[in-house]
Specification:
The chain has 566 residues and is an alpha/beta fold. The protein has 15 helices and 12 strands. It has helices at 6-34, 43-57, 63-81, 91-115, 121-136, 162-196, 203-240, 268-288, 312-325, 374-377, 421-429, 449-464, 510-514, 517-536, 539-545; strands at residues 247-254, 296-298, 329-336, 342-350, 354-360, 398-403, 406-412, 434-439, 468-472, 478-480, 486-489, 496-503. The strands form 2 sheets. Strands 5-4-3-2-1-12 form a 6-stranded mixed β-sheet.
Length: 566
């Protein structure tokens, strides 16, 4: 008979454990990517997070294994999600960012593995998920919110949750739904296997076992139903936001760019001319009676990178376009300030009155509009010095537009800003009746980035109950209704004009009124649960409990070693 060393058996068992968990983490990460636009397979996010929860909890893996599974999930998710980062600058920035974000998922793996040792593991899984989402949306360099679970749900039935608990609450709902269903299936499988060996259990063992598992299963069913039932209850209210006695006629201009790539704005005058020409075509349609006169017109970010504040030719062109269409134009431009630095600016241009309002982008993009640690990062890429030196703007997040049929307060979130909760929140808090997202995606070619960003605008529409106008230089431009549906959309790299009568709102959704409180509360619970689990459910706590004088479970204390065998 061949004997096998116990150490080898243990090593083989650990290798199999690492192997299947790694495979599940990789598959779950790939499914998470597939949930995001342009595929919009929203249910795969639920499946992915359910699989991840099982890999981090089943069999109580060690913390280091949980970190590894989280890291693998992060790589499998972010590498295919973010190739647009390197489309014109090479793979290094793309892979570096994906790796950094995967490190956050490794931290999530640690937090979830420990916290899920507490009762009701799916709850702690979901709390850990949103806590790490909040962390990576804040740090470093202001954070990177791309890939939040909520942004995968634009075509899913859970989307109305955003109107009550915001983006963080929607992400929590997705994670709770997936992990609860997965854990319930695991319990059913375990119960089936136990029932097959029921004869091995004594009568005294059977009833308590079944009773405890039944109670746990009932809790899991309730948790699994929380998000879907809440979303169903919120759906009518979300859809009602598509109706309002107050409306405005709008026009979204997509002028297109002369060529793709980082040097799209080398022909700045051509970009401006394209948007002027498209607006003149709209004016001709208005005068011909085939298109209603808009209350106002919106142009994209960088529509006029020749500042009309300092260039009279650019100012004259914009004035002529505004006069021709008979409506004010919101113009995306760059403005040089007295200190020599630029701001990414939206100017409100009213015909011959010229600029009557201004919004300077508040949240500037690291590695694009400015480069943190410039001497360090230029060591890794020759493109580093192509990053700008923009400064963040201050002041209101809204522009008061004197529309042709009445005043409209427009909230602005320029491009990158729409990913951050605080941008749209500030605009609506300041009375925005409609949201406007000027963006320039020409630097990312025909990649999925535009669709991912458009999904953020759809979620913001539901979150705040506002129409969102997305104006892109080269696509995809869109008009998004307050329920998140797209009522008009352009194509890539073609001139286009989107027109429509849209609803205006002044009332606030519950999510708007709550603001950042759902995030704060959920993160606080996640941290408290993690710390409590460390203190009570880890090897560290076990070692502490074995120290002389430490409390024991029976209320007594551990005795000092005295050589006796008690």
């Amino acid at each position: 008979m061949i004997s096998v060393e116990p150490g080898r058996l243990l090593r083989d068992e650990r290798a199999r454990d690492w192997g299947w968990r790694t495979a599940v983490g990789a598959v779950a990460g790939g499914l998470m990517w597939a949930a995001f636009p342009p595929r919009n397979l929203w249910f795969l996010a639920v499946v992915a997070l359910g699989l991840l929860a099982v890999a981090l909890r089943l069999g109580r893996p060690r913390v280091r294994l949980g970190a590894w599974v989280g890291f693998v999930f992060g790589l499998a998710f972010f590498i295919p999600l973010l190739p647009w980062i390197g489309v014109y600058v090479g793979p290094l920035p793309w892979l570096a960012l994906a790796t950094v974000l995967a490190v956050f998922l490794a931290a999530f793996g640690v937090m979830a593995t420990v916290s899920m040792r507490l009762p009701v593991p799916p709850l702690w899984f979901a709390l850990s998920w949103v806590a790490v989402e909040a962390a990576r949306s804040t740090f470093p360099f202001g954070g990177f919110p791309w890939g939040r679970a909520a942004f995968s749900q634009t075509d899913g039935p859970l989307l109305p949750l955003a109107s009550a608990v915001g983006v963080t609450g929607l992400s929590f709902g997705v994670a709770l739904f997936g992990s609860s269903v997965a854990w319930l299936l695991v319990m059913l499988g375990q119960s089936y296997r136990r029932s097959a060996s029921d004869d091995a259990l004594s009568p005294d063992d059977r009833h308590p076992l079944r009773s405890a598992r039944l109670r746990t299963a009932m809790v899991l069913v309730v948790l699994a139903l929380v998000a879907p039932v809440a979303a169903i209850a919120l759906t009518p209210g979300s859809q009602d936001k598509n109706l309002s006695p107050t409306t405005a006629s709008v026009a979204v201009i997509q002028g297109n760019v002369p060529r793709l790539g980082l040097d799209f704005n080398a022909q700045r005058r051509a970009v401006l001319d394209n948007h002027v020409a498209q607006t003149q075509r709209l004016a001709a349609a208005v005068h011909a009676g085939t298109t209603p006169r808009p209350d106002f017109v919106v142009w994209p970010e960088n529509a006029s990178d020749i500042s009309p504040l300092t260039n009279s030719d650019a100012a004259d062109e914009i004035t002529a376009a505004s006069v021709a269409v008979g409506a004010p134009i919101l113009v995306g431009t760059l403005v040089s300030n007295p200190d020599g630095r630029y701001t990414n600016t939206v100017l409100l241009w009213e015909g011959t009155h010229g600029p009557v309002g201004r919004y300077d982008k508040h949240i500037v993009q690291p590695f694009g509009e400015y480069l943190p640690w410039r001497p360090f990062f230029r060591l890794f890429s020759s493109y580093a010095d192509m990053a700008g030196d923009f400064e963040a703007g201050t002041g209101p997040s809204v522009l008061d537009v004197a529309g042709t049929s009445g005043p409209v307060r427009v909230g602005v979130s320029t491009c990158w800003e729409v990913a951050f909760d605080r941008s749209a929140q500030a605009a609506v808090d300041q009375g925005a009746q409609i949201l406007y997202v000027p963006t320039n995606n020409a630097t990312f070619g025909r990649t999925e980035m535009t669709y991912q960003q458009l999904a953020m605008s759809q979620v913001r529409a539901v979150e705040h109950g506002r129409t969102v106008l997305v104006a892109a230089t080269s696509g995809i431009s869109a008009i998004v209704a307050p329920d998140g549906s797209i009522t008009a959309q352009s194509e890539f790299f073609t001139p286009d004009t989107l027109t429509g009568r849209v609803v205006l709102h002044t009332s606030k959704t519950l999510a708007t009124r709550l603001g950042g409180w759902p995030t704060r509360v959920l993160v606080l619970f996640a941290i408290c649960g993690f710390l409590f689990a460390i203190a009570t459910h880890t090897r560290l706590s076990s070692r502490f409990n074995r120290l002389p004088g430490a409390p024991r479970g029976d209320g007594t204390t551990t005795k000092e070693p005295d050589g006796s065998r008690d």
